[in-house]
Amino acid sequence: xxxxxxxxxxxxxxxxxxxxxxxxxxxxxxxxxxxxxxxxxxxxxxxxx
Length: 49
Hints:
A hairpin with a 2-residue loop joins strand 1 and strand 2. This protein has a domain of about 30 residues. Helices cover about 15% and strands about 30% of the residues. The protein has 1 helix and 2 strands; from the N terminus they run ββα. The N and C termini lie far apart (about 35 Å). It is elongated. It is of the alpha+beta class.
């Protein structure tokens, strides 16, 4: 497994994918990539005040 980080404006999206996928996609630091996010459940919690 590998953790891949994609900078999306001010946000950092992190995904856990297989090392084989990293190699097949040719991913490395500085390489442009597209992240597609599919969530079946999203929970939002208010921060402490």
